[in-house]
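Lecture notes, continued. The same structure-token format from the folding unit now serves as the input rather than the output. Read the line below as a description of shape only.
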């Protein structure tokens, strides 16, 4: 649907978790003239497909800038979800039980040992468990494990409820939302954004936040964003199998409060196809059964696939475009868009409102690709 208004201060392209969070953060900073434009329905793409794990420590190999950003965003989650509950009445099921990471092979064992060592040295909370200790936390875990780590601060959120809460929040805050409207391109004059082009016409604006996930490259091909398909299988676990999120180096299990158990995932280059395949399900279920053989007798409730937005170096693309004034990127969140949503919202809103790029965004600037291109020429 398209309303009559064709002038806004800010247009946000994409109604996934990133576009929604940026819209909310801008509105909370008092920006009134914002329109979020979504070509389908809000929150139905990668953000809907995700597992909702907020687990930077479980996956990290070093304490680099990216790791710091992930942890900062994770630590915003309790206040972020509390505020959303106050605004909308929706409980997004932030579950703070923690995450277990299991080792089966010697290679897995080496991986968890080095993760334990650097994270302990960095002063991060992480517990090394024997197989027996791990099974005291979660009796369902395979007897084949050789060890485990427990990350008490790595938590999870029900990402679909989060999307509903964000949608309600921006509605209450007065953000205009257009759904079923595809942005075909940007309107650019003298190296400055002047609007966005849609089939019904141009919508004028001086700032565009590009949050179109895996499709961002169609709006501005200067940053190549590729889709990485992730399939997911949803099982029914009554009674619940586990309280913790459980990882192995090959897969994961995420328990939901209502008894759904998510088993993930694949990482595939399959273009924009969102099929669930026999091979994908096989891989996921084999890895889930390795974590706990109890999975084998569970009914399959649902399955789906989503497209993670990835750029060449795997890092998000956050901040203003050096070449086109008024264009601000909030894309490339790859495997961590749910986790990175609160900090992305805050930092992008700050960039737009204060016209100052926070220093923490420097490693994620879109200009890093321009710099790389000029070096390689
Ligand atoms: C199986 C799977 C599991 C995952 N698990 C986790 C996890 O546990 N934790 C985590 O943090 N992350 C996880 N992720 C990653 C996370 O889902 C993504 O990083 C995140 O959802 C990206 O959000 P987004 O808003 O950028 O993209 P999307 O949610 O894809 O939203 C982009 C939106 O832009 C719209 N759009 C595109 N082009 C246009 C256009 N031209 N005009 C208008 N609208 C347009 C699309 O329709 C879409 O709604 C997972 C992903 C997958 C697939």
């Amino acid at each position: 649907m398209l309303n009559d208004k064709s002038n806004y201060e800010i247009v946000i392209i994409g109604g996934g978790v990133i576009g929604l969070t940026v819209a909310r953060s801008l509105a909370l900073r008092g920006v009134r003239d914002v329109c979020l434009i979504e070509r389908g329905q809000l929150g139905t793409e990668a953000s809907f497909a995700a597992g909702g794990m907020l687990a930077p420590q479980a996956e990290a190999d070093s304490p680099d800038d990216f790791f710091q950003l992930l942890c900062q965003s994770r630590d915003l989650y309790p206040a972020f979800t509390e505020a959303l509950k106050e605004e909308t009445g929706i409980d997004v099921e932030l579950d703070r039980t923690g995450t277990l990471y299991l080792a089966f092979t010697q290679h897995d064992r080496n991986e968890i040992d080095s993760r334990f060592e650097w994270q302990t040295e960095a002063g991060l909370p992480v517990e090394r468990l024997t197989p027996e200790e791990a099974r005291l936390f979660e009796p369902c875990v395979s007897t084949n494990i050789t060890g485990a780590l427990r990350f008490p601060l790595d938590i999870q959120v029900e990402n679909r409820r989060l999307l509903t809460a964000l949608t309600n929040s921006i509605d209450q805050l007065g953000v205009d939302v257009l759904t079923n409207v595809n942005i075909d391109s940007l309107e650019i004059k003298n190296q400055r954004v002047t609007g966005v082009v849609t089939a019904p016409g141009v919508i004028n604006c001086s700032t565009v936040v590009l949050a179109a996930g895996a499709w961002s490259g169609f709006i501005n091909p200067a940053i190549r964003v590729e889709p990485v398909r992730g399939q997911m299988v949803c099982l029914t676990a009554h009674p619940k199998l586990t309280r913790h999120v459980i990882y192995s180096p090959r897969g994961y299990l995420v328990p939901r409060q209502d008894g759904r158990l998510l088993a993930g995932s694949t990482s595939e280059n399959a273009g924009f196809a969102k099929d669930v395949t026999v091979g994908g399900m096989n891989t996921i279920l084999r890895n889930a059964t390795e974590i706990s053989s109890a999975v084998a007798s569970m009914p399959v409730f649902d399955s789906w696939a989503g497209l993670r937005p990835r750029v060449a170096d795997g890092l998000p693309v956050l901040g203003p475009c050096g070449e086109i004034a008024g264009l601000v990127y909030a894309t490339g969140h790859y495997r961590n868009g749910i986790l990175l949503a609160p900090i992305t919202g805050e930092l992008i809103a700050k960039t737009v409102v204060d016209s100052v790029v926070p220093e923490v965004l420097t490693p994620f600037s879109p200009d890093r690709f321009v710099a790389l291109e000029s070096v390689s020429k």
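Point for the exam: The CA atoms of residues 64 and 349 lie 24 Å apart.
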